Amino acid sequence: MSIGSESPGRAQRREESPGRAQRREDSGFAARPQLSDDVARVVRRRIFEGTYPAGEYLRLDQLAVDLGISVTPVREALLNLRAEGLLVQHPRRGFMVVRFTARDLADVADVQAYVGGELAARAAERISAEQLSELKAIQDNLERAYQDADPDRAVRLNHEYHRLINIAADSPKLTQFMSGITRYQPESVFPTLEGWPAQSIRDHRRLIDALERRDADAARQAIAEHFTVGVAPLTEHLIERGVIAQEAGDG
């Protein structure tokens, strides 16, 4: 799966104390551009990891202090997350975390499978030899990250893998749509799921083989199955941790 990872050097800050250290882990990124996007990414990740549980209210001033930035980019980030459906805004109370359901995750995976499948099929027809070589190098590095049990590096390299395929597809609007739906996928969790690194490696190699053969149908099927096969273990993982709710009749 794809997208973003927080900057290195935060493990030490996490050891300060539960909760407080977690909330301060990103205080060093104040000089970076697109600050509201950075804040949104961090808050989104914390929601999916259970740091901010469903029903919790996020205070603008406290979050700004914890991140070492002004209130303005925090407000912009939370408004964006409200638009994504991850938060709701209540007058005089602030922004509350919305509970995701197992059905929500399945819906996201279905959309990813369809859109990602089309992007992969187009990439199979258009990918250059140079891009294919780069993709193989990224995959080699990703496998080493899994072997080294380095989840942050694995998330970053996984993002690079999928990003390169989307670039090769040469379909910017479709890629933009894919990027939007991927925000609802807790990518940082996947490297920690039992059995997922091995599954991901098999799926990625299968896709590379399809791209090498310029087999659009095989590429479409490979990426579609890659997205859908991860739903069950991800859902189980998040339900166990109380991050998402299991709807009546599910599972």
From TrEMBL:
<dbReference type="Pfam" id="PF07729">
    <property type="entry name" value="FCD"/>
</dbReference>
<dbReference type="InterPro" id="IPR036388">
    <property type="entry name" value="WH-like_DNA-bd_sf"/>
</dbReference>
<dbReference type="InterPro" id="IPR008920">
    <property type="entry name" value="TF_FadR/GntR_C"/>
</dbReference>
<dbReference type="InterPro" id="IPR036390">
    <property type="entry name" value="WH_DNA-bd_sf"/>
</dbReference>
<dbReference type="GO" id="GO:0003700">
    <property type="term" value="F:DNA-binding transcription factor activity"/>
</dbReference>
<keyword id="KW-0805">Transcription regulation</keyword>
<keyword id="KW-0238">DNA-binding</keyword>
<dbReference type="Pfam" id="PF00392">
    <property type="entry name" value="GntR"/>
</dbReference>
<feature type="compositionally biased region" description="Basic and acidic residues">
    <location>
        <begin position="12"/>
        <end position="27"/>
    </location>
</feature>
<feature type="region of interest" description="Disordered">
    <location>
        <begin position="1"/>
        <end position="30"/>
    </location>
</feature>
<feature type="domain" description="HTH gntR-type">
    <location>
        <begin position="33"/>
        <end position="100"/>
    </location>
</feature>
<keyword id="KW-0804">Transcription</keyword>
<protein>
    <submittedName>
        <fullName>GntR family transcriptional regulator</fullName>
    </submittedName>
</protein>
<dbReference type="InterPro" id="IPR000524">
    <property type="entry name" value="Tscrpt_reg_HTH_GntR"/>
</dbReference>
<dbReference type="InterPro" id="IPR011711">
    <property type="entry name" value="GntR_C"/>
</dbReference>
<dbReference type="GO" id="GO:0003677">
    <property type="term" value="F:DNA binding"/>
</dbReference>
